[in-house]
Amino acid sequence: MNLEIITPDKKVFAGEATAVTLPGVQGQFQVLNNHAALVSTLGQGSVVVEANGKETFTIDGGVVEVLNNNVLVLAEAIL
User: Fold this and answer.
1) I need a labelling partner for 56 at 20 to 30 A (CA). Which of 17, 19, 67, 78 fits?
2) What digits encode the pLDDT tens for the residues 10-43?
3) Superfamily (CATH H level) for 2-75
């Protein structure tokens, strides 16, 4: 699936991922390939991107949209 992580300042990540773990307001959740459409608010915490290895970004909240194997994370800030 295609993943983009964007802050108001810059694009932090853009590329293919096999899984993304996100800090939802009600708790962590994971998005995999062919996930159902979803829009959710995010709390402060870690976004773990699994592609070729793992990459972790700590965000200060935001919003995620999942649609047709495209995941867009609009983060307030990267900590």
Assistant:
1) 67
2) 999 999 999 999 999 999 999 999 999 999 999 9
3) F0F1 ATP synthase delta/epsilon subunit, N-terminal (2.60.15.10)
